[in-house]
Amino acid sequence: MKANSTYFVWAGSALLAVTALFHLTGFPAISAPQAIDGTASFLEASLRPLWLFAGVHWLLIAFICITSEKSGQGLGRLMLRCCACVVLVDALLLYLFIGPFVGVALLAASGFATTVASFGKLSASKQQS
Questions:
Q1: Helix and strand tally (H, E) in the chain?
Q2: Which residue in 16, 58, 104, 127 has a CA-CA distance of 20 to 30 Å to 87?
Q3: What letter would DSSP give residue 27?
Q4: Is 34 helix (H, G, I), strand (E, B) or coil?
């Protein structure tokens, strides 16, 4: 069962990394804020960093998942579940605000794979005890 959980962690992390990298390819297309009266609006000024933060956030979560899988301890399971929850909440919020699109499906698949991995890891560690 541990081998299966490892595959799910790697699959979920790969999906998340692909989503992040695809998202980051759109960053250069976002125009710099245009100042009308010498200052850009808050919304215009915040779009570029928020776009960047989402991609970096997903890459970091993918890295944490892979690192947690290597730990093989109770903390690793907890970290996988926390990461899965964050990714699933991201997917849910994007779905609610933007609607269905391929990015939401990739995030949901990644969160689901990581969730399955965390429970697979749980049963594997119980069998080793």
A1: 4, 0
A2: 127
A3: G
A4: coil
